[in-house]
Amino acid sequence: MPSTTTVDSIDARILDALNEDPRATVIALADKTGLSRNTVQARLGKLEKQGVLRSFERRIDPGALGYPLTAFVLTSVMQRKLSRIAQALNGIPEVVEAHGLSGVTDLLVHVVARDADDLYRIAGQILDVDGVEKTTTALVMRKFVDYRLTPLLQQLAGKD
Question: Looking at residue 4, what is its pLDDT?
Answer without folding.
Answer: 66
